[in-house]
Amino acid sequence: MQPARLLRHGGRGQALVLFSLTLLLLTLMVLMTLGFGMRAKERIEIQMAADAAAYSQAVSTARTFNAIAVMNRAQIAHMVAMAGTQSMISFGSQYHAARKATPCPVPDPMFAVLDQAAADQVRSLQGQAGAMYSGELAIYSRLVGGQLAGQQLSKAIAQAVNPELDAPAEGANKSLAEVSGGSGSVPSQDEIMQQEKAGTTPTATGAVTTSGGGQSTAMLNATMGSIGWTWVHGRPTGSAGFGSGMAANNPGFKHYASIGGMDSSTYQTISGRNSWAHDHGLAAAVVPCPDGNIYPSPSANAWVMSDERQSNQDQHVFMLHPAPGQGSESGKPVDELHTLGACVVCPGIWPYSVGFNAGLLQDNGGENDFGQPKLYAMLLRDYGSASRRARPDPWNLMFTFKFAGQETLFDNAAPLGRIQPTGREDVQRNQVALAAGIAYYHRPRPAAAGGGWEEPPNFLNPFWRATLVSPEGARDDNPAESLEQAGFTEHAGALRRLGQAGYRGGGRTDGKY
Questions:
Q1: 3-state secondary structure of 230
Q2: I need a labelling partner for 507 at 20 to 30 A (CA). Which of 83, 129, 274, 381 fits?
C-alpha cells in the first residue's frame, strides 16, 4: 500500500518550485527595470544640469558685456561733457574779452573764478571717465576668474542639482578661449599699463580686448557722433574736438556755414591727442549789457587746448591773452590751470576702455559666429567615486575578496566586475554631458526698415543676449577635442567613431571630429 500512497501524493510542491523560479525571474526583471530607469534618470539629470550651466554661463557673459557697454556709454558721455565744457571755456573767454571793450565788463577776478571752475570740471570729467576703465576690468575679471575659469559657475550649478555631479576644471578651455583668448585671469590695470608702456600688449584672440584692438578709435568716433558733427562743425561760434590741437592756427581748418558744406575728410583730425575748442572771430561782436543797451565790440579768435599733465603745451588764447596762449593767466601757469591728467602712453589724453575684438569680424567671421563667444559646460558623474561606492544601488553587489595575495574590490556595476584605477578616460566609469550656450549681439531694426539686424557685435550698445546652441556649428568648435583636453579620451574616441559611421551632429563640422 505504501508505493500507491507515494504515487498518489508525489506531485505536491511543484507549484512552489515554479513560483520560486518565476519570482526569481520577476525579481531580475524588476531590478533590470530599476537599473535601466536609474541610468536613464541620471542621464537626463546630468544633461539638464549641463544645459542649465551652459545657459547660465552665456547669460553671465552677456550681462557682463552689457555692463561694459553701458560703462563705455557713460565714459563717452563724460568725454562729450568734457568737450562741451572746453567749448564754454573758449566761448566764455571770447565773450569776456568782448565785454572788456564795453561799459559793462566782467570783473577779472570773477572771470578767473569761473575759468578755474570750468578747468577743474574738465579734469574731473576726464578722471571719472578713466576711472570707469577700472570698473570695467573689475566686472570682466569677475566673469573670467570667478565664473568661467575652472568651470566654477558650472560646478556650483551641477552640485546644486546633485552633489555627486562635478565639472572638471579643464572643461573651461573652450569658454576661456572664446572670451579671454584662453587665460583664466585678467591682468590688473597696472599690469596692462606696463604692457602698454613697453609695447608688449599681446594680440587679443578672444572676444574681449582690455586695451587696443581699435577700441579707442571706436570710442572717439562714438563721442564725436554723440556731440554731433553738426554741433562740432556747424555751431555758429566755433568747434570742439579731440585731436591735434592745431585747429586754431591750421590754414587747412575751415568753418562750415551749413551742414551741407561739411567736408568729411576733416574727421581724420580726431586722434585723442588732446582736447581743444575754438571760437572764430569772424566779425565785430554785438554785446548786450545788463543795462539793456547793446554795444559793438571788436572780436578775435579764442581757443583752449589741454593735453597731458607731463606736457607744458597747454594753451588758452583770447583777446586779452594772445597766442600762443601760454605762460601765466590770472596769476597761474596755463599748463597747470588748463592741463589734464597724466598719460600712460604719451602723448595722449584719451581714457582706456574694454572693447570687443573687431578683428574677429574679419577673415570670414560668419564661419566663427562673428566672434560672439560660445561657452561649453562639461559635467561628469564618476561611478567609481568614494561617495558612489559608499552609497551603492541596492542591486549593486560590492565586496572585497583576496586573490593571489591581493585584495580586490568586486563591483558588478563596473567593467570586468571591478573599478579600474584608470580615471576619466574610462567611458564605463564616467558619465559625461556636454552643452553649449552663446552670448550673441542683436540690435533689431524697426520693421519699417526691413527688420532683422545689421549692426556687428560691439561694446558700445547693451544689446547682448544669451541662448543655448549646438556644441558644433562654428569653425573653432570641436567637441571631441574639448573632451580629450579634459581627460575623457574614450568619450572623444566614441564621438569620432560616430562621425566615421556617418553621424553628422548639428553643425558645419560635417562629422569630422
A1: helix
A2: 381
